[in-house]
Give the backbone structure.
Amino acid sequence: MMVHTSPACDVDLQILKWLNKQTGKEKDLMSLKIALKNEQSSINMVDQFAKYSKIQRKINSIDEELQQINGKKPTRNFLVQLGFTYGVKSVLVLVLIVLSIYYRYTPVFYLGDKVNLVPFTSLICYPNDVNYVSFYFWVMCSAAVARLL
């Protein structure tokens, strides 16, 4: 199953990736951890247990330090992520409000005389004449379809 993302979502992901990139200290700690793990893998645990456990303690201390560094990041990244998410949504809402006011009395299209929408006529044609689809109804239907996709 493939997940399709919108271009705005891709931009958000790229910006979040840039904000979450590792600092110099994190890179140094990760390279030291990898070197220690490589050294530890070359040691026989049964024969040289003391040396093996000493290296393991160093790896554990590096892991704790990395967790402390990463523990400080989420607040900033969380706020940035919220800002992007709700910032884009608020801009879209403002554009939709402006378009709704500007195109209030402009029908999107005419359904024809053969179409009878009797129970829903007032909902579909709100500020327009009968059998004309209003901008409000068109936006509502488009949003519903976009959510389903």
